[in-house]
Amino acid sequence: MTAVEFTESVVELAALEWFAEIGYTIGHGPDLEPGGVVQARATLQETILRPRLLDALRRINPGLPEVALEEAVRRVEGVGQPSLILTNRAFHAMLANGVEVEVMTPEGVRGERVVLVDAANPEANEFLAVNQVTVVGTHKRRPDIVVFVNGLPLAVIELKNLASETA
To answer: What angle do CA 93, 115, 136 make, to 5 degrees?
Structure first.
């Protein structure tokens, strides 16, 4: 019997297999990049998978006009606040409560709430776990796994080998 070398890659693949077993679609980061097979991101600076988010919003917010869904996506993309804590709180509020938008009707303007994640019907959401997603901001980062729900990055998993002193 040959011993398998225990590396971060082995753990990464095991984690992806676990996500697949619980119903997640599995992806590979370079496939989502500009020029990739799926091209879910226009630039490496984007963290939201915009096409997937719009598809999910259409599915879980039937009857809302496209302009309302686009406005909700713009608000999510522009959620930045003066501090990371405030940004996280603002995003959490959108995630938990939906995004308030205005919709023009024949009777005038009315407020609507665009739901980002369907908590009542989890099967209506899209769950995606992707390895090696490159994000370029102030620094270039490539987390081991990013977990997306409806195209929104909700968790980042960075795997380290405890046996390595350089981890």
So the answer is: 65
Q: What is the pLDDT of residues 101-145, one digit of tens each?
A: 988 877 888 889 999 999 999 999 999 999 999 999 889 999 999
Cβ(25)–Cβ(128) under 8 Å? Answer: yes
Q: Which residue has the tokens 């501090």?
A: 83
**CA–CA separation, 117 and 60 (whole Å):** 8
∠ Cα 40 77 36 (to 5°): 15
- Cβ atoms of residues 16 and 128 within 8 Å: no
- Give the contacts of 1 (CB within 8 A, at least 6 positions apart): none
Asked if 110 and 135 touch (Cβ cutoff 8 Å), the reply is no
Among residues 69, 51, 72, which one has the least CA distance to residue 148? Answer: 51
